[in-house]
Design goal:
The protein has helices spanning 16-25, 32-48, 62-73, 81-88, 92-103, 107-124, 129-135, 141-152, 156-159, and strands at residues 11-12, 51-52, 161-162, 165-166. The protein has two domains: 11-52; 62-166, Arc Repressor Mutant, subunit A, CATH 1.10.10. A two-stranded antiparallel ribbon has the order 1-2. It has a two-stranded antiparallel ribbon with strand order 3-4. Strand 3 (161-162) and strand 4 (165-166) form a beta hairpin. It is built from nine helices and four strands.
Length: 178
């Protein structure tokens, strides 16, 4: 039976307890009983974890799927919907309609999710904010920070620091806003 809240794919914040449970589950000498108990705790922690707005829904329409895959391959591309529609062999209106019908979001909302999904790993690796903003084709660090704040309700720096401690999902350190 699937626990409530885990019936669909989602991205969640990884609290320290869940991180430590995952490390303990990685032990090859773990007993079956301990694995069962830790697995139960992990599922409970996942259901309690704060969902992050990082899901990137994918369409079934072949034209839209090809467009989405191309954007995911280069989320920094600033090409317009008109450009992408032409490449997909459909009108702009058709592509805009498909985004709403199949994914429930506009093209710009979907592309922002793709950018955020690319930004999070870069930031968690400790890359400077200015570098990430540039890599993702933002005119400035402040423009990128403003978009990030709208999506997550906090600045990139605040997102990666909790209770005065860096969030170290990759064990490589937290980013700074340089």
């Amino acid at each position: 039976m699937v626990p409530p809240g885990l019936d669909a794919c989602r991205v969640v914040e990884v609290p320290p307890l869940l991180r430590e449970v995952a490390v303990a589950l990685d032990d090859l000498t773990i007993s079956r009983e301990r694995e069962r108990l830790l697995g139960t705790l992990a599922l409970d922690e996942i259901t309690r974890s704060r969902p992050l707005p990082l899901s990137i829904p994918m369409p079934t329409d072949k034209r839209l799927l090809a467009l989405c895959e191309a954007v995911l391959a280069d989320p920094a591309s600033a090409d317009s919907l008109e450009h992408w529609a032409t490449l997909a062999g459909a009108s702009t209106r058709t592509i805009a309609h498909l985004f709403q019908r199949e994914l429930g979001v506009s093209f710009s909302q979907w592309r922002q999710q793709a950018v955020l999904a690319r930004a999070i790993p870069l930031l968690s690796q400790g890359r400077p904010l200015a570098q990430v903003a540039l890599l993702l084709s933002y005119q400035s660090q402040s423009a990128f920070s403003a978009m990030f704040r709208r999506a997550f309700g906090e600045s990139p720096r605040a997102f990666f620091v909790r209770d005065g401690e860096p969030r170290d999902d990759s064990h490589t350190g937290a980013p700074s806003e340089r």
